[in-house]
């Protein structure tokens, strides 16, 4: 299993994904995330790093310096049910040091209140590696289409490692997946934030081994409590 966890995607514009943010550590891509409020980003708990090392890039297709809006993280809150051994409840909220400026390329996304059904068409995005095994980091944001898998299909791949706070998504024949560097980023179904990229096998996009996503519907009450009316 790989901790930091887009293969088979294509470049896309942040205008199509205005909620997508990049979490960088000393200038390098660390994880993705989703804007859920003017000062709040939802990402994966396993992306946690010392605050002083983190920057959030908002409203940009590219990770080059000087593009988009840049914020520091003033505090981070890990989901109270997070279990790092199992990657269960792999959620973390980042509080930004100043509100973002909303516009065509910067919008928040609503966390899903309904849990996913099998066979839903969804999209994933990020700046993670586009090659696995090996690594090739793209300059520009990549997007891909995937389908949600039912619990039985997911259990065939990973057994009891998948809890009800997780679900699987991918394509049946393999070849499309989130991968190293995409962790914490969005899986979006029908305009709602349905999943957060969490874990998978170290070699991504293998047939029969879909990506595993934290199940946002199970964390929405916690998210709402923390961010309030932002």
UniProtKB/TrEMBL annotation:
GO cellular component: secretory granule
Key words of the record: Disulfide bond, Hydrolase, Protease, Serine protease
Gene3D superfamilies, A to Z: Trypsin-like serine proteases (2.40.10.10)
Pfam families: Trypsin
Coiled coil: none
The keyword DNA damage belongs to this UniProt entry's keyword annotation: no
SMART domains according to UniProt: Tryp_SPc
Official protein name in the record: KLK14 protein
């Amino acid at each position: 299993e790989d901790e930091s966890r887009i293969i088979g995607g294509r470049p896309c514009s942040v205008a199509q994904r205005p909620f997508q943010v990049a979490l960088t550590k000393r200038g390098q891509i660390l994880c993705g995330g989703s804007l859920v409020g003017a000062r709040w980003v939802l990402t994966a708990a396993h992306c946690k790093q010392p605050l002083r090392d983190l920057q959030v890039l908002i409203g940009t297709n590219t990770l080059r310096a000087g593009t988009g809006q840049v914020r520091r993280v003033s505090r981070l809150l890990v989901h109270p049910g997070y279990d790092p051994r199992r990657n269960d409840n792999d959620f973390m909220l980042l509080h930004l040091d100043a509100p973002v400026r909303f516009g065509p390329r910067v919008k928040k996304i609503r966390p899903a209140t309904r849990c996913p059904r099998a066979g839903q068409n969804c999209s994933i995005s990020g700046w993670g590696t586009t090659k696995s095994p090996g690594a090739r980091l793209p300059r520009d944001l990549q997007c891909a289409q995937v389908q949600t898998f039912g619990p039985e299909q997911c259990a065939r791949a990973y057994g009891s490692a998948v809890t009800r706070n997780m679900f699987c998504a991918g394509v049946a024949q393999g070849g499309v997946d989130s991968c190293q560097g995409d962790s914490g980023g969005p899986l979006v179904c029908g305009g709602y934030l349905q999943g957060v990229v969490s874990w998978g096998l170290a070699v991504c996009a293998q047939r029969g081994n879909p990506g595993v996503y934290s199940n946002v519907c199970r964390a929405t009450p916690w998210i709402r409590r923390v961010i309030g009316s932002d």
